[in-house]
Specification:
Layout: E1 18-22, E2 26-28, E3 33-34, E4 37-38, E5 44-46, E6 74-85, E7 100-104, E8 108-111, H1 126-143, E9 150-151, H2 153-169, H3 182-188, E10 196-205, H4 213-225, H5 227-233, E11 240-247, E12 251-260, H6 272-289, E13 296-297, H7 299-313, E14 333-343, H8 352-363, E15 378-385, E16 391-400
Parallel strand pairs: 9-11, 13-15
Antiparallel strand pairs: 1-7, 2-5, 3-4, 6-7, 6-8, 6-10, 10-12, 11-12, 14-16, 15-16
Helix pairs in contact: 1-4, 2-3, 6-8
Length: 401
């Protein structure tokens, strides 16, 4: 598939580098363009203090082609998808695992040429260019059988801010010189901490400002020919879109931003009963491995779990005396232990993967009796997913006598 208006060859695919680190991970892709040469960017992983790390392999770069049969502007593209999976803040009654961030390193494609600089001009009609950019993205998604995206104010703000900053500070990367990441920009603009977000960036050197719809068309064609940029555009986990574009003397910078609740993964959505059954089965498998007796489902403890879940989702604490959440007439309970956790990017429905992840997190927590211990004989459970992709689950372990 050719690049309309630029004539670039199809960009080759590459192995996607995936890195996971406790308490966060930062990845940066940088590119340089000089006469007659191409610099291969490398993704750089910044591990937490005291932990080692190594950068993933270099991105592959496609050679460029001519625009309009004559001039050969430099067109750069770089993509990054960032998924943040977070647990709830630890509380006395809710020992949960720490924050984890997953970043898929992006493809950076660089086509180089040196041209005479153009006079500085202001950007064109931003609202019209944004609408055109969204129409192009939604046309591509429609062809792929995906739902349309809608504008997100936080995404527009983050995209325009990054495009402007790159032009003003003279750099071209997802991570700003001050260390600000795409997800940090999204959050600073008011985006949800539980959503997944993605970013595509592009730069054209030697293009005459101000940017117009033809330039937006060319950027979109380039992004669609790059597998990882295309992945952002055609992700079923995104439902919102932002766009920013600006120019300096002879360069045009464009940024696409995406966010959403995450993908449901195509698996069967679990209702409350099915989620509870999956959790109980997985817990009992793990208890058996630890030499503990299996748990039995308890409707009374389910009610306790639902009460804690409601408080957690409202950002409140459950009552200090957790026994207050037991239904009337529920007697004989001598011990109740509660575990709760949240994770982002879970889509719009509970999945088997969500429930297994919660149980795994609880089982791996460095606390006494993470799965109830020998005193627990009964189990209650409740879970729900918010519109922003936050899945929250509560497990209650109870003992009698």
């Amino acid at each position: 598939m050719g690049l309309s208006g630029i004539g670039a060859r199809r960009m080759p695919s590459r192995v996607v580098a995936v890195a996971v680190a406790r308490h966060g991970l930062v990845e940066a892709a940088t590119s340089d363009c000089s006469s007659g040469s191409i610099t291969l960017p490398r993704g750089i992983i910044k591990p937490p203090d005291g932990e080692g790390g190594s950068p993933p392999g270099p991105a592959r770069v496609a050679p460029g082609g001519q625009e309009d049969g004559s001039r050969k502007p430099s067109w750069n593209a770089s993509a990054r998808s960032e998924v943040r999976l977070s647990t709830a803040s630890p509380r006395k009654d809710s020992p949960v695992i720490g924050t984890t961030a997953i970043v898929r390193s992006g493809l950076a494609a660089l086509l180089c040429a040196v041209l005479a600089p153009a006079a500085a001009q202001e950007s064109g009609e931003l609202d019209a260019l944004r609408r055109h950019a969204l129409d192009l993205v939604n046309a591509a998604r429609s062809e792929a059988g995906l739902s349309e995206l809608r504008f997100g104010s936080a995404l527009n703000e983050a995209a325009q801010g990054h495009a402007t900053d790159m032009a003003r500070e003279d750099y071209y990367a997802h991570v700003a010189p001050d260390g600000e990441t795409p997800f940090a920009r999204f959050r600073a603009a008011g985006g949800s901490r539980w959503a997944i977000s993605g970013e595509n960036i592009a730069r054209c050197t030697g293009c005459t400002p101000p940017p117009d719809t033809a330039r937006v068309d060319a950027f979109q064609e380039g992004w669609m020919q790059s597998p990882e940029h295309r992945e952002n555009i055609l992700s079923d986990g995104f439902d919102r879109f932002g766009f920013g574009i600006t120019s300096d003397e002879n360069r045009i910078y464009a940024v696409q931003t995406f966010a959403g609740p995450g993908s449901d993964g195509g698996g069967r959505a679990l209702d409350a009963g099915a989620a509870r059954a999956v959790a109980l089965e997985e817990l009992n498998v793990r208890r058996e491995e630890d030499g503990l007796e299996p748990l039995e489902a308890s409707e009374a403890l389910d009610q306790v779990a639902e009460g804690v879940l409601e408080a957690r989702r409202a950002g409140e604490d459950p009552p200090e005396d957790i026994f207050e959440l037991l239904p009337d007439g529920a007697e004989g309970w001598t011990s109740i232990a509660v575990r709760s956790a949240s994770r982002g990017g879970s889509g719009t429905a509970l999945s088997h993967e969500d429930i297994i992840a919660f149980v795994s997190g609880w089982a791996g927590a460095e606390i006494e009796d993470p799965l109830g211990g020998p005193r627990a004989g009964s189990f209650g459970f409740a879970a729900a997913v918010s519109d922003d992709g936050r899945a929250t689950a509560v497990a209650v372990f109870g003992g009698r006598g």
